[in-house]
Amino acid sequence: MMTKPRKPTDVQQPQTNDNPCNQRPTDGPESPSCKRQCSCCVYAQWVRPGVSVLFPMGWMSRLMCVNCDAAPGEMRQVSPTFSCPNFRPRPEPPVRLPEPPAPSDDVRYIALTKGKFAIVDAADYEWLSKYKWHLVAPGKLYAGRKEGGKTIYMHREIMQPPPGMMIDHINGNGLDDRRANMRTCTNQQNMRNLRKRCSGSSIYKGVYYDKRRRTWSARICHNGKNIHLGTFPTEIEAARAYDKAARELFGEFACLNFPQEI
Fold first, then answer.
1. pLDDT of the residue at 91
2. In this structure, what is the dihedral angle of CA atoms 247, 250, 251, 257, given to the nearest 10 degrees?
3. Does pLDDT of 197 surpass 50?
4. Does residue 17 carry a pLDDT above 80?
5. How far apart are CA 158 and CA 143, in angstroms?
6. 8 A C-beta contact, residue 59 and residue 87
7. Helix, strand or coil, per DSSP, at residue 213
8. How much is the pTM?
9. Cα 93 to the chain's mean position, in Å?
10. Which of 113, 164, 163 has its CA nearest to residue 142?
């Protein structure tokens, strides 16, 4: 005797407090390559697993969102299969971001384009979030917006420097726009805090390998002139010589190879 096949029934998944963003996907077109769900959203990024300050007991890979409608401005874990009204399709496969600062009542996040986000003080979040910010990459990553055909940078909007003055990001991250990480400076002071470029014979700033002498040399640029600091048997010794000269010449704006040795 043939039995009539049962019609498939929708199984509703319960919502939990662990994922406050869990909602049924909103209506909208779906494509085979990108569904309307958090795992395909440009604002949600996979954070790599491991032991960290954020999760000292260890944790599995988690999908973290910086633009969840249930928690504006906060970094919140979301379920890969759900979505929220802020969904924007991701043009490329998910990427893994470095660990964000630990959760704090003093820190908020503002979503940018291309899956990036700016870090701001909670006191500045309310008025900054009224604007639509995007990623600006003139060689270094910044948060900006358009107004009257001009680009307004978030860090300058917050600090309001005098004409002709620059804003230096102390930790070198142009998207970390917390006031404690920014300071007003001259263009020359700002250039002194630049990080080492990827190119070159050494991984350290101010160090290069002298092929003719087969030794490591250190040099520093001050007031437009290159100052030779000497030759050294090892790369690390040359890097420490640069740090010593940088502290003497540049003070708090010195970008050091070994800042932990101060």
1. 65
2. -40
3. yes
4. no
5. 11
6. no
7. coil
8. 0.54
9. 18
10. 113
Which parts of 101-140 are beta strand (E)?
Answer: 107-111, 117-121, 134-136
**3-state SS string over 19-83?**
CCCCCCCCCCCCCCCCCCCHHHECCEEEECCCCCCCCCCCCCCEEEECCCCCCCCCCEECCCCCC
pLDDT of residue 74: 84
Edge to edge, the sheet with strand 134-136 lists: 134-136, 142-147, 150-153
Structure tokens at 120: 């701001």
Query: Residue 113 phi/psi, 5° resolution?
Result: -80, 170
pLDDT of residue 22: 40
- What is the distance, to the nearest Å, from the Cα of residue 118 to the centroid of all Cα atoms in its chain? 7
133: left (phi over 0), alpha (psi -120 to 50) or beta: beta
Amino acid, single-letter form, for residue 179:
R
Distance CA 259, CA 77 (A): 33
Q: How many residues does this entry show for the chain?
A: 262
DSSP 3-state assignment of 1?
Answer: coil
* Predicted pLDDT at 174: 93
Ramachandran angles phi, psi of 41, nearest 5°: -90, 140
Collapsed DSSP state (helix, strand, coil) of residue 171? coil
Domains and CATH numbers, the chain: 17-101 (no CATH), 104-194 (3.90.75), 198-261 (3.30.730.10)
Cα 167 from chain centre: 17
| Cβ-based neighbour number of residue 194 at 10 Å | 12
What is the H or E stretch that residue 226 is in? strand 225-232
Average pLDDT score over residue span 92-121: 75
- The type of residue at 189 is Q
Please name the amino acid found at residue 154: M
d(CA 211, CA 104): 50
